[in-house]
Every structure is written in C-alpha cells, then in structure tokens.
Amino acid sequence: NVQRGADGSGFGNPGLRCTACHFSSNSKALHGPPGAENWHLAPAEMAWFGKSSAEICAQIKDPLRNGNRSLKDIALHVRDDRLVAWGWAPGPDREPAPDSAEATYQAIEDWAAAGASCPPGQ
Fold this sequence. Notes:
- By secondary structure, the protein is mostly helical.
- The protein has one domain.
- The protein has helices at residues 53-61, 71-80, 82-85, 101-113.
- 5% of the residues are buried.
C-alpha cells in the first residue's frame, strides 16, 4: 500500500514516483490505480475522512480550503476534471459514484443558486 510521504509531498516511498503506477489514463486492471494527464494527489488538508457533512460543506465553500475555487469553479471541476471523472468509472470490481458527473455538476449549480446552505454542525 503506497501512501503519501510524511512531509505531505506525495512521495511516500523513496525512488517510487507516482508515475510508476499512475498513467495518463485509468488502469483497466482489477483494482488498478486511477490515471489522468495531470494525475496528482489532492493536498492532504483537502481530505474529507473523519469530517462531518457540515465540515465538508464549509470546506467546499471556503476558497482558502478548496483550491481557491468559487462554487461555479467547483461545479466545473466536478464535471470536467479527468481526475474527478475516475469516480464514475473506477474500473473493475469497484462501485462508481452515484449518478454522473453531469448530474453532480447540476446538483452543485442548483445548490449554489439556492444559497448553498450547509447542514447544522454536530
């Protein structure tokens, strides 16, 4: 199991670069790694593991914690980024994200138009 380096760089194993496994397109191998032209790990601070829905919502809306994106930018990122698209085509024996990139884009657009409210904190 390859993991991010202790310094957060994405270089967890000396001498083993990300491109040793991650190519310009998704692997067709069972449980193969995702790929895209500009494959990279998101910054560790963008991870959602262990966060509540309210915390994730606040993070999505905060340009200081979302890659300096507006909600429109977030919607376009979800719809158009090949890295994100992996979620809807994750390869053999993996369950894809629900709906589609286009449906998720539209849901974000609708949410933004309605005021982008977040669930109450816990």
